[in-house]
Amino acid sequence: MPSQAERAVIKKDFLEIWDSRMARGTVLAVPLVLVVALPIVFLVMINTVPPSGMNGVDQMMRLLPAQARGLSPRQGMMYLMTDLLFPAFFLMIPLMASSVAAASSFVGEKERGTLPTLLLTPMSVKRIFHAKTLGCVLLSAIVTAISFVVFAVIVSVGDILLGLPFFLNWSWLALILFLTPAVTVFGVVFMVMVSARSKSYVESVQTSGYLVLPIVLALIGQLAGLFRLSAWFLLVAAAAVWAADALLWALSGRSFTPEKLLR
Amino acid sequence: MSGLSFDVEAGEVFGFLGPNGAGKTTTVKLLTGLLRPDEGSCSVFGFSPAQKPCEVHRLCGVMTEGAKMYGQMTGTENLIFFGQAFGMKDEDCRDRARGLLKKLDLWDARDRKLRAYSTGMAQRLSLARALMNRPRALFLDEPTSGLDPESAREVNTMIADLARAEDVTVFLCTHQLRYAQDVCSRYGILEKGSLLAYGTLEAISRDAGLHTRASLRLREGDSPAGFERGGDGWWYADVLSEDEMPKLIREAVTGGHEIYEARLIRPTLEDVYFKYVSLNGGKQP
Question: Chain B interface residues facing chain A, Cβ-Cβ under 8 Å?
Fold first, then answer.
């Protein structure tokens, strides 16, 4: 349970992120685009445009797994969106939310010159580090949870309209329960590492763009039919990210010292 | 820093002086645990800042140019936040913030965001923040830098008043020698990381070879023995202490000299400071 001082730091960090137009914009816009706007656009297109009017439907239908072979083109398109495209979109939310929160909390504080003041309180550097990390993870978790609920409602409506079963399968469960929390923590600890070298909030957010690359590559590989990420693979990936989290956590905690931070 | 050694007595206002880059801020960082010394040690109320920074921070208030507050928060919110970070209870935070905002003439701006404060107001709020935890010692690093003369005077007066009223030990780094002379009881003069002088004004003046001088204004053409004529027409003689002054006046009068004015001129902090800096190869004003 965080102490009163740690809770004050977490609350202050939340308000600071909310106050920054750039951070607030990113934290709100990424989920709105990826799990609200795009799914709705795809859903409307699938339901309104005749499959004969779309290019590449046949190639896409070939990506369907064996258990989904009997689906109609519309159903098949929705299945592919939910199974291949949306998980990658969804995973970007915790990643972006946590790295933007951490950029504001760690680099932003350094950039605004408020970090020395915080370091002059009786809170130990370790406590400040924990409070800030916890705040970023919490914020990202809240954004991700809300995004998932909204996304689930939108996709469920689509599934009902197209007569498909509920979308939540083992892969989605592995993604939500294991990979998403691991990626959330990764976004934060990666940014803490970056903050030691980064001079500005913008620079650190730009660096976080590299984190999206593995997700994009996984998406392209799946859409090209090169491989398919199973629930097992996602579990293994989650374990690998958790291991990276632990390593980066230890390294970033060690680099979080007043002398390194105020350099 | 090199071979730095000094102590500050509880309850005193200690003036730490030196040109830019002398090492004043580094010293404050060492004393508040933001930097670790490569060698040697320091102790604040018996705690090593490098080993026990939290204990030092609990007992001290620090106001430095580099320690800013949150622009998106109001003055009151800032003080309450730092009070909470110091582990103070909510009610205590509010009471203390209210009292300090009133005392530092920020009450009317209490609900305004800090980013809308003027430099002087922001400096006063920083001072309030440093006082939130009722510190036993205050480290003030150039508390009036960037302020116009009026605001600087206002902040200076407040620091002196607060130090007296709150009974805190003050470690004051400043360029304002005249002000420092009014409020400090002892001084340290720093140059290139080394302490050039340390002690009361009287002691450091003596060490610098600067003496108190008796000066007399006499009738034109008059010349008393043992005195030298200055460019301003006054007659000057070094004295070891002010106790010599009555005797000098008495001797001048009995010697038939007509004294229009008599003055005892003590070296100012400014005289002493520039003497040390020039002795050390620094620039004279």
Answer: 29, 32-36, 53-55, 57-58, 62, 64, 66-73, 81-82, 84-87, 129, 133
Contact A116 B33 (CB under 8 A): no
Mind listing the pLDDT tens digit for each residue in A149-179?
999 999 999 889 888 888 888 889 999 999 9
Sheet holding B169-174, edge to edge: B60-63, B137-141, B169-174, B13-17, B186-191, B194-199
- Whether the model clears a pTM of 0.90, i.e. scores above it, the answer is no
Block residue for tokens 């340290």 = B188
Superfamily designation of domain B13-204: P-loop containing nucleotide triphosphate hydrolases (3.40.50.300)
Question: Tens digits of per-residue pLDDT, B140-180?
Answer: 998 887 777 877 887 788 778 777 777 789 999 988 888 88
Nearest CA in chain A to B28: A120
Check if the beta carbon of residue A139 is closer than 8 Å to that of residue A97. Answer: yes
Count of alpha carbons within 13 angstroms of residue A204, beta-carbon side: 32
Name the residue ranges covered by the structural domains of chain B.
13-204, 211-266
